[in-house]
Specification:
With about 100 residues, the chain is of the alpha+beta class. It contains one helix and four strands. It has a four-stranded antiparallel beta sheet, with no helix packed on it. It is flat.
């Protein structure tokens, strides 16, 4: 962190779910634009949702705005981090050795 970050208090919509159909945790900031390098700290949110449950609601949050240098650094660094996603290899199906398991009767 370079310098002091500007603090902005705001509200977030929450959507947490842990069911057989979905496993997700979304916190959507309201009425604010999030930019590279910004951080959001959520206040008074549950740390766990039991299996089979879904929780929706609202909570308070604090946005910590990144300064110009931190924003630039985050944008630069993200170019290399996204490149890691491109390093995925594919093999033709003919080259894959699939073992077939036979169960005795």
């Amino acid at each position: 962190m370079i310098g002091t970050k500007q603090r902005v208090d705001l509200r977030c919509l929450l959507d947490f779910e842990q069911t057989p159909e979905s496993l997700h945790a979304h916190a959507i900031p309201q009425d604010v634009e999030i930019r590279p390098g910004d951080e959001i700290l959520l206040h008074d949110v549950p740390d766990m949702v039991a299996f089979g449950e879904r929780l929706t609601g609202e909570c308070g949050a604090t946005l910590l705005r990144a300064g110009p240098l931190e924003r630039l650094w985050t944008q630069f660094r993200s170019l290399f981090e996204i490149a890691e996603l491109y390093e995925v290899g594919f093999q033709p199906l003919d080259d894959v050795n699939i073992a077939t398991i036979h169960h005795g009767v």
